[in-house]
Protein backbone atom coordinates (compact mmCIF):
# COMPACT_ATOMS: atom_id res chain seq x y z
CA UNK A 1 0.00 0.00 0.00
CA UNK A 2 1.31 3.41 -0.91
CA UNK A 3 1.19 5.95 1.85
CA UNK A 4 1.35 9.50 0.46
CA UNK A 5 3.36 12.04 2.32
CA UNK A 6 1.48 14.85 4.06
CA UNK A 7 3.02 17.36 1.69
CA UNK A 8 1.49 15.54 -1.28
CA UNK A 9 -1.95 15.33 0.29
CA UNK A 10 -4.23 17.50 -1.81
CA UNK A 11 -7.66 18.92 -1.37
CA UNK A 12 -8.97 16.48 -3.94
CA UNK A 13 -7.65 13.61 -1.81
CA UNK A 14 -9.47 14.93 1.23
CA UNK A 15 -12.71 15.19 -0.77
CA UNK A 16 -12.49 11.69 -2.13
CA UNK A 17 -12.05 10.35 1.43
CA UNK A 18 -15.56 11.58 2.18
CA UNK A 19 -17.34 9.57 -0.49
CA UNK A 20 -15.17 6.42 -0.96
CA UNK A 21 -17.54 3.48 -0.84
CA UNK A 22 -15.39 1.28 1.43
CA UNK A 23 -13.43 3.49 3.77
CA UNK A 24 -12.39 0.46 5.81
CA UNK A 25 -10.42 -0.84 2.84
CA UNK A 26 -7.12 1.03 2.55
CA UNK A 27 -6.48 2.76 -0.78
CA UNK A 28 -3.81 1.20 -2.92
CA UNK A 29 -3.24 3.67 -5.76
CA UNK A 30 -2.85 7.41 -6.18
CA UNK A 31 -4.21 8.91 -9.41
CA UNK A 32 -2.50 12.16 -10.34
CA UNK A 33 -4.45 14.65 -12.44
CA UNK A 34 -2.45 17.83 -12.90
CA UNK A 35 -1.67 19.11 -9.42
CA UNK A 36 -4.37 17.03 -7.73
CA UNK A 37 -3.88 13.53 -6.23
CA UNK A 38 -6.74 11.08 -5.70
CA UNK A 39 -6.24 8.11 -3.31
CA UNK A 40 -8.41 5.34 -4.72
CA UNK A 41 -8.73 1.58 -5.15
CA UNK A 42 -7.32 -0.09 -8.23
CA UNK A 43 -9.93 -2.85 -8.41
CA UNK A 44 -12.85 -0.39 -8.32
CA UNK A 45 -11.35 1.76 -11.10
CA UNK A 46 -10.35 -1.23 -13.20
CA UNK A 47 -13.88 -2.62 -12.96
CA UNK A 48 -15.21 0.36 -14.96
CA UNK A 49 -12.21 1.57 -16.97
CA UNK A 50 -10.54 -0.66 -19.50
CA UNK A 51 -7.80 1.97 -19.88
CA UNK A 52 -6.82 1.79 -16.17
CA UNK A 53 -7.01 -2.02 -16.27
CA UNK A 54 -4.51 -2.08 -19.14
CA UNK A 55 -2.22 0.38 -17.34
CA UNK A 56 -2.19 -1.86 -14.27
CA UNK A 57 -1.73 -5.05 -16.29
CA UNK A 58 1.03 -3.62 -18.47
CA UNK A 59 2.91 -1.97 -15.62
CA UNK A 60 6.46 -3.24 -14.99
CA UNK A 61 5.98 -2.64 -11.28
CA UNK A 62 4.65 -5.59 -9.36
CA UNK A 63 2.62 -3.29 -7.17
CA UNK A 64 1.61 -0.16 -9.09
CA UNK A 65 1.00 2.67 -6.64
CA UNK A 66 0.66 5.72 -8.88
CA UNK A 67 -1.17 6.40 -12.13
CA UNK A 68 -0.69 9.65 -14.01
CA UNK A 69 -3.82 10.88 -15.82
CA UNK A 70 -2.74 14.47 -16.34
CA UNK A 71 -3.75 14.36 -20.01
CA UNK A 72 -7.33 13.23 -19.35
CA UNK A 73 -9.91 15.49 -21.10
CA UNK A 74 -11.75 17.70 -18.62
CA UNK A 75 -8.94 17.61 -16.07
CA UNK A 76 -9.46 17.32 -12.35
CA UNK A 77 -13.18 18.11 -12.28
CA UNK A 78 -14.02 15.54 -14.92
CA UNK A 79 -11.97 12.81 -13.26
CA UNK A 80 -13.55 13.50 -9.88
CA UNK A 81 -16.98 12.73 -11.36
CA UNK A 82 -15.55 9.67 -13.12
CA UNK A 83 -14.26 8.40 -9.79
CA UNK A 84 -17.65 9.04 -8.18
CA UNK A 85 -19.28 7.03 -10.91
CA UNK A 86 -16.86 4.16 -10.32
CA UNK A 87 -17.69 4.20 -6.62
CA UNK A 88 -21.43 4.43 -7.26
CA UNK A 89 -21.85 7.94 -5.90
CA UNK A 90 -24.73 9.83 -7.53
CA UNK A 91 -24.17 13.13 -9.31
CA UNK A 92 -26.08 15.15 -11.85
CA UNK A 93 -25.22 15.22 -15.54
CA UNK A 94 -25.98 18.63 -17.09
CA UNK A 95 -25.42 20.33 -20.42
CA UNK A 96 -22.41 22.07 -18.87
CA UNK A 97 -20.57 18.94 -17.71
CA UNK A 98 -21.72 16.29 -20.17
CA UNK A 99 -19.04 17.12 -22.75
CA UNK A 100 -16.05 16.74 -20.39
CA UNK A 101 -17.65 13.65 -18.82
CA UNK A 102 -18.22 12.06 -22.21
CA UNK A 103 -14.68 12.82 -23.39
CA UNK A 104 -13.18 11.49 -20.12
CA UNK A 105 -15.31 8.32 -20.33
CA UNK A 106 -14.23 7.69 -23.91
CA UNK A 107 -10.61 8.41 -22.98
CA UNK A 108 -10.75 5.88 -20.08
CA UNK A 109 -12.59 3.37 -22.31
CA UNK A 110 -15.59 3.25 -19.98
CA UNK A 111 -17.86 1.81 -22.68
CA UNK A 112 -20.82 -0.56 -22.53
CA UNK A 113 -18.73 -3.17 -24.33
CA UNK A 114 -16.45 -3.29 -21.33
CA UNK A 115 -19.14 -2.95 -18.66
CA UNK A 116 -22.89 -2.70 -18.97
CA UNK A 117 -24.39 0.68 -18.08
CA UNK A 118 -21.01 2.34 -18.20
CA UNK A 119 -20.36 6.07 -18.13
CA UNK A 120 -19.79 6.54 -21.88
CA UNK A 121 -23.20 5.04 -22.62
CA UNK A 122 -24.85 7.24 -20.00
CA UNK A 123 -23.33 10.43 -21.38
CA UNK A 124 -24.19 9.42 -24.95
CA UNK A 125 -27.83 8.95 -24.00
CA UNK A 126 -27.90 12.34 -22.30
CA UNK A 127 -26.37 14.02 -25.35
CA UNK A 128 -28.93 12.48 -27.68
CA UNK A 129 -31.96 13.19 -25.51
CA UNK A 130 -31.01 16.53 -23.94
CA UNK A 131 -27.60 17.85 -24.93
CA UNK A 132 -28.22 18.42 -28.64
CA UNK A 133 -32.01 18.49 -28.62
CA UNK A 134 -32.41 22.28 -28.51
CA UNK A 135 -30.44 25.28 -29.71
CA UNK A 136 -29.77 26.52 -26.18
CA UNK A 137 -28.46 23.19 -24.91
CA UNK A 138 -26.36 22.56 -28.02
CA UNK A 139 -24.73 25.98 -27.62
CA UNK A 140 -23.93 25.18 -23.98
CA UNK A 141 -22.39 21.82 -24.92
CA UNK A 142 -20.36 23.33 -27.76
CA UNK A 143 -19.14 26.10 -25.52
CA UNK A 144 -17.89 23.55 -22.97
CA UNK A 145 -15.97 21.74 -25.71
CA UNK A 146 -13.48 24.57 -26.06
CA UNK A 147 -11.32 23.23 -23.20
CA UNK A 148 -11.56 19.70 -24.54
CA UNK A 149 -9.96 20.25 -27.94
CA UNK A 150 -8.69 18.46 -29.88
CA UNK A 151 -10.16 15.36 -28.18
CA UNK A 152 -13.76 16.67 -28.43
CA UNK A 153 -13.32 17.02 -32.19
CA UNK A 154 -11.83 13.51 -32.45
CA UNK A 155 -14.90 11.95 -30.83
CA UNK A 156 -17.12 13.96 -33.23
CA UNK A 157 -18.74 15.94 -30.42
CA UNK A 158 -17.92 19.36 -31.89
CA UNK A 159 -19.26 18.46 -35.32
CA UNK A 160 -22.49 17.14 -33.83
CA UNK A 161 -23.09 20.35 -31.92
CA UNK A 162 -22.23 22.59 -34.88
CA UNK A 163 -24.57 20.63 -37.13
CA UNK A 164 -27.48 20.90 -34.68
CA UNK A 165 -26.90 24.59 -33.97
CA UNK A 166 -26.67 25.56 -37.65
CA UNK A 167 -29.78 23.55 -38.50
CA UNK A 168 -31.88 25.05 -35.73
CA UNK A 169 -30.55 28.58 -36.36
CA UNK A 170 -31.56 28.40 -40.04
CA UNK A 171 -34.97 27.06 -39.04
CA UNK A 172 -35.50 29.87 -36.52
CA UNK A 173 -34.41 32.48 -39.06
CA UNK A 174 -37.03 31.27 -41.56
CA UNK A 175 -39.79 30.29 -39.11
CA UNK A 176 -39.34 32.02 -35.73
CA UNK A 177 -40.79 30.15 -32.78
CA UNK A 178 -40.01 32.73 -30.12
CA UNK A 179 -40.08 36.47 -29.67
CA UNK A 180 -38.13 38.51 -30.64
CA UNK A 181 -37.53 36.71 -33.93
CA UNK A 182 -33.74 37.19 -33.77
CA UNK A 183 -33.37 35.61 -30.33
CA UNK A 184 -31.22 32.87 -31.81
CA UNK A 185 -28.48 35.40 -32.68
CA UNK A 186 -28.09 36.14 -28.97
CA UNK A 187 -27.56 32.43 -28.36
CA UNK A 188 -24.83 32.25 -30.98
CA UNK A 189 -23.16 35.30 -29.47
CA UNK A 190 -22.33 33.21 -26.39
CA UNK A 191 -19.88 31.08 -28.36
CA UNK A 192 -16.16 31.59 -28.65
CA UNK A 193 -15.09 33.05 -31.96
CA UNK A 194 -13.68 29.80 -33.39
CA UNK A 195 -16.87 27.87 -32.56
CA UNK A 196 -18.97 30.75 -33.90
CA UNK A 197 -17.01 30.66 -37.16
CA UNK A 198 -17.75 26.93 -37.53
CA UNK A 199 -21.47 27.56 -37.04
CA UNK A 200 -21.55 30.40 -39.60
CA UNK A 201 -19.74 28.25 -42.16
CA UNK A 202 -22.23 25.45 -41.58
CA UNK A 203 -25.15 27.86 -42.00
CA UNK A 204 -23.72 29.04 -45.33
CA UNK A 205 -23.48 25.44 -46.50
CA UNK A 206 -27.14 24.99 -45.61
CA UNK A 207 -28.04 27.90 -47.88
CA UNK A 208 -28.83 30.52 -45.26
CA UNK A 209 -29.72 33.94 -46.67
CA UNK A 210 -27.01 36.58 -46.56
CA UNK A 211 -29.15 38.84 -44.38
CA UNK A 212 -29.50 35.98 -41.88
CA UNK A 213 -25.73 35.58 -41.75
CA UNK A 214 -25.27 39.35 -41.49
CA UNK A 215 -27.72 39.57 -38.57
CA UNK A 216 -25.81 36.91 -36.64
CA UNK A 217 -22.48 38.64 -37.33
CA UNK A 218 -23.75 42.05 -36.23
CA UNK A 219 -25.14 40.67 -32.97
CA UNK A 220 -21.93 38.75 -32.27
CA UNK A 221 -19.78 41.80 -32.95
CA UNK A 222 -21.89 44.05 -30.75
CA UNK A 223 -21.59 41.56 -27.89
CA UNK A 224 -17.91 40.62 -28.14
CA UNK A 225 -16.65 44.13 -29.04
CA UNK A 226 -19.14 46.02 -26.92
CA UNK A 227 -16.55 48.57 -25.77
CA UNK A 228 -15.59 49.47 -29.32
CA UNK A 229 -18.90 49.10 -31.16
CA UNK A 230 -21.67 50.83 -29.25
CA UNK A 231 -24.96 51.47 -31.10
CA UNK A 232 -22.92 51.79 -34.32
CA UNK A 233 -22.01 55.36 -33.43
CA UNK A 234 -18.38 54.57 -32.84
CA UNK A 235 -18.56 55.81 -29.28
CA UNK A 236 -16.65 53.91 -26.66
CA UNK A 237 -16.56 54.12 -22.91
CA UNK A 238 -13.47 53.28 -20.95
CA UNK A 239 -11.32 53.03 -24.08
CA UNK A 240 -7.67 53.32 -23.30
CA UNK A 241 -5.35 55.24 -25.56
CA UNK A 242 -3.66 53.13 -28.21
CA UNK A 243 -0.33 54.34 -26.84
CA UNK A 244 -1.07 53.05 -23.35
CA UNK A 245 1.50 50.58 -22.10
CA UNK A 246 -0.75 48.83 -19.58
CA UNK A 247 -0.25 45.06 -19.92
CA UNK A 248 -3.88 44.23 -19.18
CA UNK A 249 -5.06 46.76 -21.74
CA UNK A 250 -2.68 45.40 -24.33
CA UNK A 251 -3.82 41.85 -23.64
CA UNK A 252 -7.45 42.86 -23.98
CA UNK A 253 -6.73 44.71 -27.21
CA UNK A 254 -4.90 41.69 -28.61
CA UNK A 255 -7.92 39.51 -27.83
CA UNK A 256 -10.25 41.99 -29.50
CA UNK A 257 -7.97 42.14 -32.51
CA UNK A 258 -8.14 38.35 -32.92
CA UNK A 259 -11.94 38.45 -32.69
CA UNK A 260 -12.21 41.17 -35.34
CA UNK A 261 -9.80 39.46 -37.70
CA UNK A 262 -11.81 36.25 -37.34
CA UNK A 263 -15.17 37.92 -37.95
CA UNK A 264 -14.36 39.87 -41.13
CA UNK A 265 -13.57 36.78 -43.29
CA UNK A 266 -17.02 35.41 -42.42
CA UNK A 267 -18.83 38.32 -44.12
CA UNK A 268 -21.20 37.33 -46.96
CA UNK A 269 -20.08 38.50 -50.38
CA UNK A 270 -23.20 40.62 -51.04
CA UNK A 271 -22.31 44.31 -50.77
CA UNK A 272 -25.70 45.28 -49.28
CA UNK A 273 -25.40 42.83 -46.38
CA UNK A 274 -24.37 45.42 -43.77
CA UNK A 275 -25.33 49.05 -43.12
CA UNK A 276 -22.54 51.48 -43.82
CA UNK A 277 -22.43 52.86 -40.28
CA UNK A 278 -21.70 49.35 -38.96
CA UNK A 279 -18.88 48.90 -41.47
CA UNK A 280 -17.42 52.29 -40.55
CA UNK A 281 -17.44 51.34 -36.87
CA UNK A 282 -15.64 48.08 -37.63
CA UNK A 283 -13.06 49.89 -39.74
CA UNK A 284 -12.38 52.33 -36.92
CA UNK A 285 -12.00 49.29 -34.60
CA UNK A 286 -9.49 47.81 -37.04
CA UNK A 287 -7.53 51.08 -37.10
CA UNK A 288 -7.55 51.40 -33.32
CA UNK A 289 -6.66 47.74 -32.70
CA UNK A 290 -3.96 47.82 -35.38
CA UNK A 291 -5.50 44.91 -37.21
CA UNK A 292 -3.87 43.28 -40.19
CA UNK A 293 -3.72 45.11 -43.51
CA UNK A 294 -5.93 42.50 -45.17
CA UNK A 295 -8.62 43.06 -42.54
CA UNK A 296 -8.58 46.83 -43.01
CA UNK A 297 -8.52 46.62 -46.80
CA UNK A 298 -11.52 44.30 -46.83
CA UNK A 299 -13.51 46.71 -44.67
CA UNK A 300 -12.45 49.68 -46.81
CA UNK A 301 -13.55 47.80 -49.93
CA UNK A 302 -16.98 47.12 -48.47
CA UNK A 303 -17.43 50.75 -47.41
CA UNK A 304 -16.39 51.89 -50.89
CA UNK A 305 -19.05 49.72 -52.54
CA UNK A 306 -21.90 51.50 -50.73
CA UNK A 307 -20.26 54.89 -50.18
CA UNK A 308 -23.17 56.67 -51.88
CA UNK A 309 -25.14 56.09 -48.64
CA UNK A 310 -22.45 57.50 -46.35
CA UNK A 311 -23.13 60.41 -44.05
CA UNK A 312 -20.81 62.97 -42.53
CA UNK A 313 -21.06 61.23 -39.15
CA UNK A 314 -19.96 57.95 -40.72
CA UNK A 315 -16.83 59.56 -42.15
CA UNK A 316 -16.13 61.28 -38.85
CA UNK A 317 -16.28 57.90 -37.10
CA UNK A 318 -13.31 56.82 -39.22
CA UNK A 319 -11.41 60.00 -38.55
CA UNK A 320 -11.33 60.63 -34.82
CA UNK A 321 -10.17 58.68 -31.82
CA UNK A 322 -12.73 57.25 -29.42
CA UNK A 323 -12.52 60.28 -27.17
CA UNK A 324 -13.07 62.53 -30.19
CA UNK A 325 -10.15 64.73 -29.22
CA UNK A 326 -7.68 63.96 -32.00
CA UNK A 327 -7.52 62.84 -35.59
CA UNK A 328 -7.04 59.10 -35.86
CA UNK A 329 -6.65 58.32 -39.54
CA UNK A 330 -7.32 60.09 -42.84
CA UNK A 331 -5.64 57.60 -45.15
CA UNK A 332 -8.59 55.21 -44.98
CA UNK A 333 -11.03 58.00 -45.89
CA UNK A 334 -8.82 59.03 -48.79
CA UNK A 335 -8.57 55.46 -50.12
CA UNK A 336 -12.33 54.92 -49.76
CA UNK A 337 -13.31 58.13 -51.59
CA UNK A 338 -10.70 57.54 -54.28
CA UNK A 339 -11.92 53.98 -54.81
CA UNK A 340 -15.52 55.12 -55.17
CA UNK A 341 -14.59 57.82 -57.72
CA UNK A 342 -12.67 55.27 -59.80
CA UNK A 343 -15.59 52.85 -59.64
CA UNK A 344 -18.02 55.53 -60.76
CA UNK A 345 -15.67 56.53 -63.57
CA UNK A 346 -15.37 53.01 -64.94
CA UNK A 347 -19.12 52.41 -64.60
CA UNK A 348 -20.04 55.63 -66.39
CA UNK A 349 -17.64 55.08 -69.28
CA UNK A 350 -18.58 51.43 -69.70
CA UNK A 351 -22.37 51.84 -69.53
CA UNK A 352 -22.89 55.19 -71.25
CA UNK A 353 -19.68 55.58 -73.23
CA UNK A 354 -19.51 59.26 -72.26
CA UNK A 355 -16.83 61.47 -70.80
CA UNK A 356 -16.77 61.02 -67.02
CA UNK A 357 -15.68 64.64 -66.49
CA UNK A 358 -18.89 65.86 -68.13
CA UNK A 359 -21.51 63.44 -66.82
CA UNK A 360 -21.81 62.65 -63.13
CA UNK A 361 -24.29 60.33 -61.48
CA UNK A 362 -26.57 61.38 -58.66
CA UNK A 363 -24.49 59.23 -56.30
CA UNK A 364 -21.33 61.11 -57.27
CA UNK A 365 -22.98 64.48 -56.72
CA UNK A 366 -24.37 63.34 -53.36
CA UNK A 367 -20.91 62.19 -52.27
CA UNK A 368 -19.42 65.54 -53.30
CA UNK A 369 -21.75 67.39 -50.91
CA UNK A 370 -20.99 64.88 -48.12
CA UNK A 371 -17.22 65.20 -48.56
CA UNK A 372 -17.42 69.01 -48.55
CA UNK A 373 -19.42 68.94 -45.32
CA UNK A 374 -16.91 66.44 -43.89
CA UNK A 375 -14.03 68.77 -44.77
CA UNK A 376 -15.78 71.59 -42.94
CA UNK A 377 -15.89 69.40 -39.81
CA UNK A 378 -12.25 68.31 -39.81
CA UNK A 379 -10.99 71.74 -40.84
CA UNK A 380 -11.59 72.92 -37.26
CA UNK A 381 -8.68 70.78 -35.98
CA UNK A 382 -5.34 72.52 -35.85
CA UNK A 383 -3.35 69.32 -36.42
CA UNK A 384 -4.80 68.92 -39.92
CA UNK A 385 -2.12 69.72 -42.47
CA UNK A 386 -2.68 71.49 -45.78
CA UNK A 387 -1.60 68.44 -47.74
CA UNK A 388 -4.14 66.19 -46.04
CA UNK A 389 -6.91 68.78 -46.38
CA UNK A 390 -6.20 69.28 -50.07
CA UNK A 391 -5.58 65.58 -50.60
CA UNK A 392 -9.19 64.74 -49.77
CA UNK A 393 -10.85 67.75 -51.38
CA UNK A 394 -9.25 67.19 -54.80
CA UNK A 395 -10.47 63.60 -54.95
CA UNK A 396 -13.91 64.84 -55.99
CA UNK A 397 -14.00 65.90 -59.67
CA UNK A 398 -14.78 69.60 -60.03
CA UNK A 399 -17.76 68.96 -62.28
CA UNK A 400 -19.46 66.86 -59.60
CA UNK A 401 -19.96 70.00 -57.53
CA UNK A 402 -22.81 72.15 -58.80
CA UNK A 403 -21.64 74.84 -56.42
CA UNK A 404 -18.47 75.32 -54.39
CA UNK A 405 -20.25 77.04 -51.50
CA UNK A 406 -19.77 74.09 -49.11
CA UNK A 407 -16.12 73.79 -50.08
CA UNK A 408 -15.66 77.52 -49.57
CA UNK A 409 -17.09 77.15 -46.07
CA UNK A 410 -14.54 74.41 -45.31
CA UNK A 411 -11.70 76.55 -46.66
CA UNK A 412 -12.83 79.54 -44.61
CA UNK A 413 -12.94 77.44 -41.43
CA UNK A 414 -9.47 76.07 -42.13
CA UNK A 415 -8.06 79.57 -42.63
CA UNK A 416 -9.76 80.76 -39.45
CA UNK A 417 -8.29 77.90 -37.37
CA UNK A 418 -4.84 78.37 -38.94
CA UNK A 419 -4.28 82.15 -38.75
CA UNK A 420 -0.49 81.88 -39.08
CA UNK A 421 -0.49 80.78 -42.73
CA UNK A 422 1.36 83.03 -45.17
CA UNK A 423 -0.07 84.21 -48.47
CA UNK A 424 1.36 81.31 -50.47
CA UNK A 425 -0.06 78.73 -48.06
CA UNK A 426 -3.44 80.44 -48.12
CA UNK A 427 -3.45 80.32 -51.90
CA UNK A 428 -2.59 76.62 -51.75
CA UNK A 429 -5.57 75.99 -49.46
CA UNK A 430 -7.88 78.04 -51.69
CA UNK A 431 -6.66 76.31 -54.85
CA UNK A 432 -9.10 73.45 -54.27
CA UNK A 433 -12.14 75.64 -55.02
CA UNK A 434 -13.28 77.57 -58.07
CA UNK A 435 -14.34 81.16 -57.23
CA UNK A 436 -16.42 81.24 -60.43
CA UNK A 437 -18.67 78.46 -59.04
CA UNK A 438 -19.64 80.35 -55.91
CA UNK A 439 -23.17 81.63 -55.46
CA UNK A 440 -23.86 85.37 -55.33
CA UNK A 441 -24.09 85.32 -51.53
CA UNK A 442 -20.82 83.38 -51.24
CA UNK A 443 -19.05 85.78 -53.61
CA UNK A 444 -20.26 88.74 -51.59
CA UNK A 445 -18.92 87.09 -48.44
CA UNK A 446 -15.64 86.21 -50.15
CA UNK A 447 -15.14 89.78 -51.38
CA UNK A 448 -15.29 90.98 -47.76
CA UNK A 449 -13.35 88.05 -46.24
CA UNK A 450 -10.01 89.31 -44.99
CA UNK A 451 -8.75 85.77 -44.39
CA UNK A 452 -8.76 84.97 -48.10
CA UNK A 453 -5.72 85.80 -50.24
CA UNK A 454 -6.07 88.85 -52.45
CA UNK A 455 -6.11 86.79 -55.65
CA UNK A 456 -9.27 84.94 -54.63
CA UNK A 457 -11.03 88.19 -53.70
CA UNK A 458 -10.17 89.69 -57.08
CA UNK A 459 -11.47 86.60 -58.82
CA UNK A 460 -14.81 86.92 -57.04
CA UNK A 461 -15.14 90.64 -57.82
CA UNK A 462 -14.15 90.18 -61.45
CA UNK A 463 -16.70 87.43 -61.90
CA UNK A 464 -19.44 89.66 -60.47
CA UNK A 465 -18.63 92.34 -63.03
CA UNK A 466 -18.66 89.82 -65.87
CA UNK A 467 -21.90 88.36 -64.63
CA UNK A 468 -23.51 91.79 -64.37
CA UNK A 469 -22.48 92.76 -67.90
CA UNK A 470 -23.44 89.44 -69.42
CA UNK A 471 -26.72 89.60 -67.56
CA UNK A 472 -27.58 93.01 -69.09
CA UNK A 473 -26.65 91.80 -72.57
CA UNK A 474 -28.66 88.67 -72.11
CA UNK A 475 -31.69 90.73 -71.00
CA UNK A 476 -31.55 92.92 -74.14
CA UNK A 477 -31.16 89.93 -76.37
CA UNK A 478 -34.10 88.21 -74.70
CA UNK A 479 -36.34 91.27 -75.25
CA UNK A 480 -35.37 91.44 -78.92
CA UNK A 481 -36.04 87.77 -79.46
CA UNK A 482 -39.44 88.02 -77.76
CA UNK A 483 -40.40 91.04 -79.94
CA UNK A 484 -39.38 89.21 -83.11
CA UNK A 485 -41.40 86.19 -82.15
CA UNK A 486 -44.44 88.34 -81.37
CA UNK A 487 -44.17 90.19 -84.68
CA UNK A 488 -43.88 86.99 -86.61
CA UNK A 489 -46.97 85.59 -84.91
CA UNK A 490 -48.94 88.77 -85.69
CA UNK A 491 -47.99 88.56 -89.36
CA UNK A 492 -49.14 84.97 -89.48
CA UNK A 493 -52.49 85.90 -87.93
CA UNK A 494 -53.07 88.75 -90.46
CA UNK A 495 -52.24 86.45 -93.35
CA UNK A 496 -54.72 83.88 -92.08
CA UNK A 497 -57.51 86.53 -91.84
CA UNK A 498 -56.86 87.65 -95.42
CA UNK A 499 -57.03 84.11 -96.71
CA UNK A 500 -60.35 83.58 -94.93
CA UNK A 501 -61.83 86.75 -96.45
CA UNK A 502 -60.74 85.75 -99.96
CA UNK A 503 -62.32 82.33 -99.50
CA UNK A 504 -65.61 83.85 -98.36
CA UNK A 505 -65.64 86.17 -101.41
CA UNK A 506 -65.08 83.32 -103.82
CA UNK A 507 -67.85 81.29 -102.22
CA UNK A 508 -70.25 84.27 -102.48
CA UNK A 509 -69.56 84.67 -106.18
CA UNK A 510 -70.13 80.98 -106.72
CA UNK A 511 -73.54 81.13 -104.97
CA UNK A 512 -74.63 84.06 -107.06
CA UNK A 513 -73.63 82.31 -110.26
CA UNK A 514 -75.58 79.18 -109.33
CA UNK A 515 -78.64 81.29 -108.52
CA UNK A 516 -78.48 82.96 -111.94
CA UNK A 517 -78.28 79.59 -113.62
CA UNK A 518 -81.34 78.36 -111.75
CA UNK A 519 -83.42 81.36 -112.76
CA UNK A 520 -82.30 81.12 -116.35
CA UNK A 521 -83.27 77.47 -116.53
CA UNK A 522 -86.67 78.11 -114.92
CA UNK A 523 -87.47 80.96 -117.37
CA UNK A 524 -86.60 78.85 -120.34
CA UNK A 525 -88.76 75.92 -119.16
CA UNK A 526 -91.83 78.19 -118.54
CA UNK A 527 -91.65 79.80 -122.00
CA UNK A 528 -91.41 76.38 -123.57
CA UNK A 529 -94.57 75.23 -121.86
CA UNK A 530 -96.52 78.16 -123.29
CA UNK A 531 -95.62 76.97 -126.75
CA UNK A 532 -96.67 73.66 -128.08
CA UNK A 533 -93.20 72.27 -128.08
CA UNK A 534 -92.22 69.13 -126.22
CA UNK A 535 -91.29 69.14 -122.56
CA UNK A 536 -87.57 69.70 -122.11
CA UNK A 537 -85.81 67.26 -119.81
CA UNK A 538 -83.69 68.71 -117.01
CA UNK A 539 -80.09 69.14 -117.92
CA UNK A 540 -77.05 68.15 -115.90
CA UNK A 541 -76.40 71.73 -114.92
CA UNK A 542 -79.93 72.27 -113.69
CA UNK A 543 -79.95 69.21 -111.47
CA UNK A 544 -76.50 70.08 -110.19
CA UNK A 545 -77.59 73.60 -109.33
CA UNK A 546 -80.57 72.27 -107.39
CA UNK A 547 -78.36 70.04 -105.35
CA UNK A 548 -75.91 72.83 -104.67
CA UNK A 549 -78.71 75.15 -103.61
CA UNK A 550 -79.84 72.64 -101.03
CA UNK A 551 -76.37 72.54 -99.50
CA UNK A 552 -76.37 76.33 -98.94
CA UNK A 553 -72.93 76.58 -97.19
CA UNK A 554 -73.74 80.10 -95.98
CA UNK A 555 -76.93 79.28 -94.16
CA UNK A 556 -75.25 79.08 -90.71
CA UNK A 557 -72.08 80.91 -91.50
CA UNK A 558 -70.88 84.37 -90.70
CA UNK A 559 -71.89 85.64 -94.15
CA UNK A 560 -75.72 85.41 -94.28
CA UNK A 561 -77.23 86.18 -97.69
CA UNK A 562 -80.88 86.13 -96.66
CA UNK A 563 -81.07 89.88 -96.95
CA UNK A 564 -80.25 89.87 -100.66
CA UNK A 565 -83.35 90.78 -102.74
CA UNK A 566 -84.54 88.44 -105.47
CA UNK A 567 -84.81 91.31 -107.96
CA UNK A 568 -84.71 90.67 -111.68
CA UNK A 569 -81.21 90.22 -112.89
CA UNK A 570 -79.58 90.53 -116.19
CA UNK A 571 -80.01 87.27 -118.04
CA UNK A 572 -77.11 87.97 -120.26
CA UNK A 573 -74.78 85.01 -119.97
CA UNK A 574 -71.71 86.08 -118.07
CA UNK A 575 -68.19 85.33 -119.02
CA UNK A 576 -67.50 81.66 -118.41
CA UNK A 577 -65.33 81.22 -115.32
CA UNK A 578 -63.85 78.11 -113.87
CA UNK A 579 -64.40 77.29 -110.23
CA UNK A 580 -62.40 74.62 -108.56
CA UNK A 581 -64.16 72.87 -105.71
CA UNK A 582 -61.97 70.56 -103.76
From TrEMBL:
Its main location: membrane. Residues 182-467 form the NPH3 domain. GO terms for cellular component: endomembrane system. Residues 521-530 have a biased composition (Polar residues). Transmembrane segments: none annotated. It is a peripheral membrane protein. Keywords: Phosphoprotein, Ubl conjugation pathway. SUPFAM superfamilies: POZ domain. It holds the Pfam family NPH3. InterPro entries: BTB/POZ_dom, NPH3/RPT2-like, NPH3_dom, SKP1/BTB/POZ_sf. Residues 27-95 form the BTB domain. Belongs to the NPH3 family. This is Root phototropism protein 2. It comes from Vigna unguiculata (Cowpea).
